[in-house]
């Protein structure tokens, strides 16, 4: 039952990507109707004890009530998911770093420590989305959906590790499109081997179109640089990248706008696909488990924790590469994203097995679209503000890999059906990509540290 | 729906802004500079069916009416004086920037009138020859400019302007049309004929293949005879592409005969008989031919100045020649098609818009470019299909994006916006792009 919590991040992605909200979330949530210690009813937006606290005006009136609330909150958020067993690894990583400085171990431990935090972050976001209504909720999901990757990227940018940023974002896209989707199709296809599963074609088509546009945005600066046809060598590609990033952000914003507009015509209650509890079509269709302020507080706490661990993670990458004897490219492109996407991965597979392929697609492809049209340009912008020359020139090998991957996936999605063979094909493609990055060295530099001039 | 439509809708468009449709004028002595040559040609039958030789007054009437119909009826023609002005400026100041700019403005209305004359002529010739006329003259402006550039040995300009024309048609024109149409029809999704769009996409991909092989062959230094092989390959591929285009025309005509719709009538505005002249042509057959010739020669004349001014303009305005060739030239050359495509999209006639935009791209890529290669062959110019890697890759990714967006047969404003933004990205990348072989403008 607790493992079902892992699916919550999946619904986080849903909002902005797919027309219908999550289905049957109620049935897989473990804590529907349970009354916990101090909160008898959860139908209202604030829990009873909190109401008592706030409305009565005397904040610390009843310490016992407060402590109950805090304990209940912690129990709901921290102890409810099995994944959270990995949580102690975070502080352990910091400990190891302080005491031994062995980068390999620090890297592994912080990786493990971040996984549950990322999942809980998605959970907190989705809880908050219950309170804010579909519009803001969708926007929340659209930005926080990949918050983990973005936080890691910003830290890497700060350290001037531009290639790591590019490669980890690229790897996140590849892993979402190939690995997550492949596993989902495969698992779903095995469960439903009698018939092909179907999903919403137009949504997949729009997402594929956006991915192609993102590839175009990445391809042109890379080509410009590779063919040595820039106006001012080295600087033009950067200026072009910044301009293109603005355009891609505009495109993503209009995509969100367009999604919201077309969703309004077929408005389905935000978190409820089927009427399990026929509540009024209110914004809090699904009973949120923690109050609004709790969500915000947890959001802040988790983000802060992820930031701290990311710092250690990023600092340990190079050392880990030396210690574990694998190229930095492999770590950035394959290892980091697998970990960052672990929760989404599980959620997508699970939904596919329940024949809810649209949610799976929302998770996988929607996440790819988000990273490519929002995450990457956002990092370029942040780099611009920081004065770091992050650009869209992902070097020819990476760009070409992305290009062919997008083509393969777009082609497979275009008929709107899925089966286990498609899933296997996608997984095998991912293995090919992973293998090629295992033997890939960056042409630009072995050391990523200083803000380098390209070539 | 087919390539024939690009010109059809121009007539419908002109109808709505045509002020002098049915007027038979008496003698307002409006002397335009073009009146002289017409008076010399006095053969054939006019729409009045008169024996015109004997009556000077009649002649002048006809000529004036013709001029009024063709020259003065379109608001765009206000730009016409810019043509002679450009020549003026060139002779007196030789300031290339201004000459270039003015010539651009001067060519715009001429291009539009050329399309009008072509479509008028198509009334008289029946669907087959009419279709062929449209297929060749549809992009006559670009071809004329290209031939002049070829003559001057500016091979890269030719390649880039043709490429830019394809890109602008596929991204900018189509994007604006989808966007405007989507804004007007927000409640429903506009649909268009999927099959035609798919065929056109297939042809575009074939054109990309034709361009890709010479470019890659050269870039990977794997030619049998360095420099010469890919020229030979280009010429051979061009013949094949021209053959493919001819078969495509034939295929279109054959399949259209089965579902023959009156050639120039999409909505039933005038319920005429299904005759060839369903829509009343506005000028007689011989007038059409004459105007066609006049327009073509004027365009050629101005193109000479235009092409000569390109390099100077690039220096004067400090923008790369690639940007001028790929972005500026085609925007101007396509201005009239652009406006009509948008207008038809807003009237929910997306098939016509697609015919204008994608059909034009197909025409340039499968006919225009190979044609220029063959012309270059005849002229002894080494014009080839190697558009250099950057340009070829840009075309490739663009064709993929557009083919993908068209494949489900629907349109909405978001798709339009995406296409426009893609065009901005492409334009920006050409703004910072210099040719690797920029030195040899004089043809190697």
TrEMBL record, chain A:
Listed GO biological process terms: intracellular calcium ion homeostasis
InterPro entries per record: CaH_exchang, CAX-like, NaCa_Exmemb, NCX_ion-bd_dom_sf
TM helices/strands, residue ranges: 92-118, 138-157, 169-192, 204-224, 236-258, 296-314, 321-339, 359-384, 396-414, 420-439
Highest taxon, organism lineage: Eukaryota
One of the record's GO molecular function terms: calcium:proton antiporter activity
Membrane topology: Multi-pass membrane protein
A single Gene Ontology CC term: plant-type vacuole membrane
Domain Sodium/calcium exchanger membrane region: 104-260, 295-437
Subcellular location field: Vacuole membrane
Keywords, ordered alphabetically: Antiport, Calcium, Calcium transport, Ion transport, Membrane, Transmembrane, Transmembrane helix, Transport, Vacuole
Family stated for the protein in its record: Belongs to the Ca(2+):cation antiporter (CaCA) (TC 2.A.19) family. Cation/proton exchanger (CAX) subfamily.
Function according to Swiss-Prot or TrEMBL: Vacuolar cation/proton exchanger (CAX). Translocates Ca(2+) and other metal ions into vacuoles using the proton gradient formed by H(+)-ATPase and H(+)-pyrophosphatase.
Protein name: Vacuolar cation/proton exchanger
Organism: Rosa chinensis (China rose)
Lineage: Eukaryota, Viridiplantae, Streptophyta, Embryophyta, Tracheophyta
UniProtKB/TrEMBL annotation, chain B:
Stored InterPro entries: CaH_exchang, CAX-like, NaCa_Exmemb, NCX_ion-bd_dom_sf
Entry GO CC: plant-type vacuole membrane
All copies of domain Sodium/calcium exchanger membrane region, residue ranges: 98-253, 288-430
A UniProt-annotated Pfam family: Na_Ca_ex
Main location as per UniProt: membrane
GO biological process, one term: intracellular calcium ion homeostasis
Protein name: Vacuolar cation/proton exchanger
Lineage: Eukaryota, Viridiplantae, Streptophyta, Embryophyta, Tracheophyta
Native organism: Rosa chinensis (China rose)
Keywords of the record: Antiport, Calcium, Calcium transport, Ion transport, Membrane, Transmembrane, Transmembrane helix, Transport, Vacuole
Sequence similarity: Belongs to the Ca(2+):cation antiporter (CaCA) (TC 2.A.19) family. Cation/proton exchanger (CAX) subfamily.
């Amino acid at each position: 039952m607790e493992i079902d919590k892992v699916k919550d991040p999946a619904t986080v992605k849903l909002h902005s990507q797919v027309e219908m909200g999550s289905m049957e979330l109620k049935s897989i949530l473990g804590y529907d109707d349970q009354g916990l210690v101090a909160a008898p009813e959860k139908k209202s937006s604030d829990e009873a004890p909190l109401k008592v606290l706030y409305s009565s005006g005397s904040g610390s009136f009843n310490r016992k009530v407060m402590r109950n609330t805090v304990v209940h909150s912690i129990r709901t958020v921290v102890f409810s998911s099995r994944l959270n067993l990995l949580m102690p690894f975070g502080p352990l990583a910091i400990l190891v770093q302080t005491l031994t400085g062995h980068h390999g171990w620090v890297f592994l431990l912080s990786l493990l420590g971040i996984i549950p935090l990322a999942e809980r972050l998605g959970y907190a976001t989705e809880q908050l989305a219950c309170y804010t209504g579909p519009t803001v909720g969708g926007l929340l999901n659209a930005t926080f959906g990949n918050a983990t990757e973005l936080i890691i990227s910003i830290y890497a940018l700060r350290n001037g590790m531009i290639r790591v940023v590019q490669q980890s974002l690229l790897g996140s896209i590849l892993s979402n499109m190939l690995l997550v989707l492949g596993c989902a199709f495969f698992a779903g296809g095995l469960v439903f081997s009698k018939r092909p599963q179907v999903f919403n074609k137009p949504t997949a088509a729009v997402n594929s179109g956006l991915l192609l546009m993102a590839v175009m945005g990445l391809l042109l600066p890379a080509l410009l640089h590779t063919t040595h046809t820039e106006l001012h060598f080295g600087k033009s590609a950067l200026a072009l990248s910044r301009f293109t990033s603005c355009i891609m952000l505009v495109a993503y914003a209009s995509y969100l706008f367009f999604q919201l507009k077309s969703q309004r015509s077929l408005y389905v209650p935000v978190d409820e696909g089927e009427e399990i509890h026929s509540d009024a079509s209110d914004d809090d269709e699904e009973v949120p488990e923690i109050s609004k302020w709790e969500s915000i507080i947890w959001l802040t706490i988790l983000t802060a924790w992820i930031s701290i661990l990311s710092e250690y993670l990023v600092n340990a990458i190079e050392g880990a590469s030396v210690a574990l004897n694998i190229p930095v490219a492999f770590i950035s492109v394959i290892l980091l994203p697998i970990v960052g996407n672990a929760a989404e991965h599980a959620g997508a597979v699970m939904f596919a097995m329940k024949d809810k392929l649209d949610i799976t697609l929302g998770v996988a492809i929607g996440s790819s679209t988000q990273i490519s049209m929002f995450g990457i340009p956002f990092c370029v912008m942040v780099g611009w503000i920081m004065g770091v020359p992050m650009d869209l020139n992902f070097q020819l090998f990476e760009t070409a890999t992305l290009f062919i991957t997008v083509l393969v996936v777009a082609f497979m999605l275009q008929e709107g059906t899925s089966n286990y063979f498609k899933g296997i094909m996608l997984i095998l493609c991912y293995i090919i990509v992973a293998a090629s990055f295992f033997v890939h060295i960056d042409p630009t530099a072995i050391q990523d540290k200083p803000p380098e001039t390209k070539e | 729906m087919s390539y024939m439509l690009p010109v059809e809708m121009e007539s419908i468009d002109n109808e709505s802004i045509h002020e002098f449709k049915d007027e038979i004028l008496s003698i307002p002595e409006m002397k335009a500079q073009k009146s002289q040559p017409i008076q010399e040609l006095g053969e054939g039958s006019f729409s009045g069916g008169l024996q015109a030789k004997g009556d000077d007054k009649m002649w002048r009437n006809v000529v004036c009416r013709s001029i009024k119909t063709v020259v003065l009826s379109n608001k765009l023609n206000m730009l016409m004086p810019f043509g002679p002005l450009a020549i003026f400026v060139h002779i007196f100041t030789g300031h290339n920037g201004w000459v270039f700019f003015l010539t651009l403005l001067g060519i715009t209305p001429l291009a539009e009138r050329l399309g009008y004359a072509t479509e008028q002529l198509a009334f008289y010739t029946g669907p087959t020859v009419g279709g062929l006329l449209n297929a060749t003259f549809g992009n006559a402006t670009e071809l004329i400019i290209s031939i002049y550039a070829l003559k001057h040995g500016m091979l890269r300009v030719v390649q880039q302007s043709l490429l830019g024309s394809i890109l602008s048609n596929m991204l900018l024109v189509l994007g604006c049309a989808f966007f405007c149409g989507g804004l007007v029809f927000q409640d429903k999704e506009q649909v268009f004929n999927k099959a035609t769009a798919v065929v056109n996409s297939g042809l575009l991909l074939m054109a990309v293949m034709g361009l890709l092989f010479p470019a890659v062959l050269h870039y990977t230094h794997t030619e049998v005879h360095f420099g010469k092989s890919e020229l030979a390959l280009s010429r051979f591929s061009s013949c094949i592409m021209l053959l493919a285009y001819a078969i495509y025309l034939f295929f279109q005509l054959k399949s259209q005969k089965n579902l023959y719709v009156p050639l120039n009538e999409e909505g039933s505005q005038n319920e005429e008989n299904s005759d060839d002249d369903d829509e009343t042509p506005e000028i007689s057959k011989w007038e059409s031919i004459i105007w066609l010739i006049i327009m073509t020669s004027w365009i050629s004349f101005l193109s000479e100045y235009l092409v000569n001014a390109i390099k100077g303009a690039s220096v004067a305005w400090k923008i790369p020649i690639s940007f001028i060739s790929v972005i500026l030239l085609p925007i101007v050359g396509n201005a009239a098609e652009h406006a009509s495509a948008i207008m038809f999209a807003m009237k929910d006639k997306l098939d016509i818009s697609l015919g204008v935009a994608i059909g034009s791209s197909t025409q340039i890529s499968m006919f225009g470019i190979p044609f220029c290669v063959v012309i270059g062959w005849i002229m002894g110019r080494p014009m080839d299909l190697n558009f250099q890697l950057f340009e070829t890759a840009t075309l490739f990714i663009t064709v993929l994006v557009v083919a993908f967006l068209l494949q489900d047969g629907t349109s909405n404003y978001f798709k339009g916006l995406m296409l426009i933004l893609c065009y901005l990205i492409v334009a920006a990348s050409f703004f910072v792009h210099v040719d690797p072989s920029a030195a040899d403008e004089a043809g190697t």
